[in-house]
Every structure is written in structure tokens, then in C-alpha cells.
Amino acid sequence: EFLASRSRHKEAADMYEKAAELRPRDYELAVAAATAMRQAGRQDDAERWYRQAVLLKPQDARGHTNLGAILHLNGKYTEAAASYKEALRLQPGDITTLTNLHKLHSVMT
């Protein structure tokens, strides 16, 4: 967190990735690694770690929303919509997910 707070995103991403690789069953580390990757501009790596987070905790709506957001950024719109819809199934009415899904639909049409 210290490195990310100092805008040293590449270093933070590398450190979180190493930590997450050492503890591959740790949901919070997977999310932290994914977020650090996204902040460092490593979108494909971020997607991989958000996917890992969803595998670790499939009942957590936040994980599906995060995965949907990175898929959206990566241009994988159909997969993004599916992730957002799963997040809404798990947490109906979530404003962030609804907003993201609305933005996605405007890009898709």
C-alpha cells in the first residue's frame, strides 16, 4: 500500500503479484494484486488476478463487479456483461454495478 500511495504503481504491482503467487488461495491478495496491476496499466494481468479472485470467492459480488470492470476496459463486453449480471444476482441493486452495466450497454449499442 505504501508504494501505491506514492504512485509507484509498477513496483507495487510487482510486490503484490509476488505475494499473491506465494499465497494463491488468498482472496484479498488476489484483489490487491489485480488492483495494483490495473493501476500500473497492466490490464491483462489485472484481468487474470480478478479472475482468480472470483474463483476463490464466487459468492462475493464485489469480485464479479471488479472482473466485469476490467473485462469492460479490455473490450470483452459480452463477458463483462455476464460478470456484472452475476454481481447483481448476488447483490441486487448495487449502484456501482448498475452504473457500470449502464455504461457498458451504452458502449455496446
TrEMBL record:
Tell me which SMART domains the record gives.
TPR
Keywords from the named record: TPR repeat
Query: What's the superkingdom here?
Result: Eukaryota
GO BP annotations listed: protein O-linked glycosylation via mannose
Instruction: Write down any Gene Ontology CC term.
Output: endoplasmic reticulum membrane
> Which ranges does the UniProt record give for the TPR repeats?
61-94
Pfam families on file: TPR_1, TPR_16
**What name has this protein been given in UniProt?**
Uncharacterized protein
Cross-referenced InterPro entries: TMTC_O-mannosyltransferase, TPR-like_helical_dom_sf, TPR_rpt
Query: Where do the coiled-coil regions begin and end?
Result: none
* Signal peptide segment: none
Which GO molecular function annotation, any one, does this entry have?
mannosyltransferase activity
